Amino acid sequence: MSEQTTTPAGDDESVAVSQTPMVLAEHVSKSFGSNEVLKDISLEVRRGEVLCLVGPSGSGKSTFLRCINHLEQVSSGRLSVDGSVVGYREVGDKLYEMHPKDAAKQRRDIGMVFQRFNLFPHMTALENVMEAPTQVKGVSRSKAKARAHELLARVGLAERADYYPAHLSGGQQQRVAIARALAMDPKLMLFDEPTSALDPELVGEVLDVMKELAKTGMTMIVVTHEMGFAREVADTLVFMDGGVVVETGDPREVLANPQHARTQAFLSKVL
Amino acid sequence: MNDASSGRTETSVPAGGPGAAPVPTKIVRLRHPWRIAFAVVILAIVAVVVIDAAQRPAFDWPTVGKYLFDQRISQAAGYTLLLTVLSMVIGVVLGIILAVMRQSENPVLKGVAWVWLWIFRGTPVYVQLVFWGLLATIYTSIDLGVPFMEPWVSFPTTALLNTFWLAVIGLALNESAYMAEIVRAGLLSVDSGQSEAATALGMGWGTTMRRVVLPQAMRVIIPPTGNEVISMLKTTSLVSAIPFTLELYMRQRDIAAAIFAPVPLLIVASIWYLAITSVLMVGQYFLEKRFARGVGDRPDTGPGPVTGAMSTDGLEQVDPEAGLAARHGGDAR
């Protein structure tokens, strides 16, 4: 348990690099029309940190996650990943909107796992994992295939490589989706309620894969309702409600002893 | 009616085996006497019509037989088929381009596609074909060069485009407008999560379309496209408006006019149209089967097929319904 909190950036990298937070949000707001979904969010995710975002539905956690890899554009504020502003080029004190091609390049290093898996149904599990490396990075098919087999084995699905998603259970599909994201060698993994669409007995297998991943020192932001997972794996727990960060802290402390009334009210219903 | 005798033997016959337990052993299916009655009536009507038609001199069956495989007719059928295939191929390609343009975020592309659709879908194809026929009159030459300057090269329009190609262009452009809507429906049927997942993996818009969205849209696109092909086959009979006269309808009309026998030649043409349509329908069946592959909603029970086996084995049994279910699934989203 204690090992996983050590940052992988560690000693061998330069101090400057290891001090740059993986994700830095400064006064981030996001509106859909007149509906303000994120209000002045400021938070920091260190390298190797596992951060769990919890809160009632509609609290803006998923939107915040989607802003991090520019699936949504922030309305104001500054959101940067690994030191560079998401979706914009910073010149002086101005932010220039990026060309979609550059935004796509930026996303390569950020893996994302969705609530509804979103595997490509016309490809086998193996092809799903191979797709992005071959199409986006231009990795040769043989290399991508070897790596895909390796990743599928890592999520415990070596024998299911040639199955189509329709023939896999929800838990298996989500594990393939994790392998697919890992195939791009991301420096940051985003999980958007990865177990919410699963039958209860399948939740464990997905969480186990995520725990393993956390142990390797991957920086992870997880939107979840699994408080057990948050308590066990997360370094930081962030409670959001109504588009604002209500409470941040060590998950064991926040869960055991929430400071804010809203956190207390939410946790009393969930725990 | 034999109503009384049917369906009433529900009472269970004692089990024939050693056990005397009152297990019902014989199932009597619900009978449908009215179906048989209707079938008999219809058969009778058909028989009357056929016998009458066979004897009616106006149909002139010997002439039908004589011209059915006449070389001029079979050649004309060939032209009809060629017109259909060429116009459809161009129409589908343009349709995909237009549909993608309409889906794009670029307002210019969107606008161009919208105007194109507005014009080609908003005017009758017959009118369009007449216009194409007048192209050489309206634009006597086709020039390449800078506008309002002396052209670099200049071709007389009639030398560049004969009536056959004008017919192909006329039919294809009209078709492209309809195909664009079919393709667009297909694109919309693909869950938005698919392009989102592709985007999150760092794929650009083009790659996402080509690798993720279009292959899935195909299952929704193919059935109505088959419809369009058959519709196109029949629309080719309108190219007399250009006028292109070597296709089936005009050819049979010319022959009919020469021998003063309109009815038998119409029958000949109809037989050819029906024959080609039937062949196309078979083709559509196999195409649908192919694109329903690998995506059928099948419960994940039992040992799934392995790699290559997937394509041949598993789907033989699931097929027609799988395709259907998949389509419905697509619509539901």
Automatic annotation (TrEMBL), chain A:
Gene3D superfamilies documented for this protein: P-loop containing nucleotide triphosphate hydrolases
A Pfam family the protein falls into: ABC_tran
Annotated catalysed reactions: a polar amino acid(out) + ATP + H2O = a polar amino acid(in) + ADP + phosphate + H(+)
InterPro entries: AAA+_ATPase, ABC_ATPase_HisP-typ, ABC_transporter-like_ATP-bd, ABC_transporter-like_CS, MetN_ABC_transporter-like, P-loop_NTPase
Domain of life per record: Bacteria
Keywords per UniProt: ATP-binding, Nucleotide-binding, Transport
Molecular function, one GO term: ATPase-coupled polar amino acid-transporter activity
Occurrences of domain ABC transporter (ranges): 23-267
EC number, as in UniProt: 7.4.2.1
Family: Belongs to the ABC transporter superfamily.
Protein name: ABC-type polar-amino-acid transporter
Biological source species: Agromyces cerinus subsp. cerinus
Automatic annotation (TrEMBL), chain B:
InterPro entries xref list: AA_ABC_transptr_permease_3TM, ArtM/GltK/GlnP/TcyL/YhdX-like, MetI-like, MetI-like_sf
Region annotation Disordered: where it falls in the sequence: 297-333
Pfam families tied to this protein: BPD_transp_1 (PF00528)
Cell compartment(s), UniProt: Cell membrane
Transmembrane segments: 36-56, 76-101, 113-135, 155-174, 255-275
UniProt record, GO biological process: amino acid transport
Keywords: Amino-acid transport, Cell membrane, Membrane, Transmembrane, Transmembrane helix, Transport
Domain ABC transmembrane type-1: 77-284
Main location: membrane
Membrane found in the keyword field: yes
UniProt GO MF annotations: transmembrane transporter activity
Membrane topology: Multi-pass membrane protein
Top-rank lineage group of the source organism: Bacteria
GO CC terms in record: ATP-binding cassette (ABC) transporter complex
PANTHER family associated with the record: L-CYSTINE TRANSPORT SYSTEM PERMEASE PROTEIN TCYL, MEMBRANE COMPONENT OF AMINO ACID ABC TRANSPORTER
Protein family membership: Belongs to the binding-protein-dependent transport system permease family.
The name this protein goes by in its record: Amino acid ABC transporter membrane protein, PAAT family
